[in-house]
Amino acid sequence: MARRRSKSTKKKTVSVNRKEIVKVGEVEVGDFCYFISADNKTRWGEVLKVIITEDQEPVMSMQCQQNWSFHVALMRLSAWDTKSLKGLKWDYKAEMGKE
Predict the structure, then answer these.
(1) CATH classification number, 19-86, choose in 2.40.30.10, 1.10.10.10, 2.30.30.240, 2.30.30.140
(2) Would 78 disulfide with which of 13, 22, 86, 90, CB 3.0-4.6 Å?
(3) Distance (Å) of CA 9 to CA 5, 6, 12, 16, 34
């Protein structure tokens, strides 16, 4: 007797509110926000420096408040709450293609 194929279930789409993403004019040195580090972990940290250049996307120098490590965070991967970062990852392939 032939095996029956299991019917695939449709994945539920999760709608994520991206309203709380950090924007260029909103953040100042000394503010605290959530960010995704290079190892794709969500961290809470203090903004030490905001770096805005014309040829690259805006980044922030951050200090993690859990283990006091220093990171460079992209503004598009930073938010005021953790729910806004759900599903986002640091995309290494996209970064390599820009060069």
Answers:
(1) 2.30.30.140
(2) 22
(3) 12, 9, 9, 21, 34
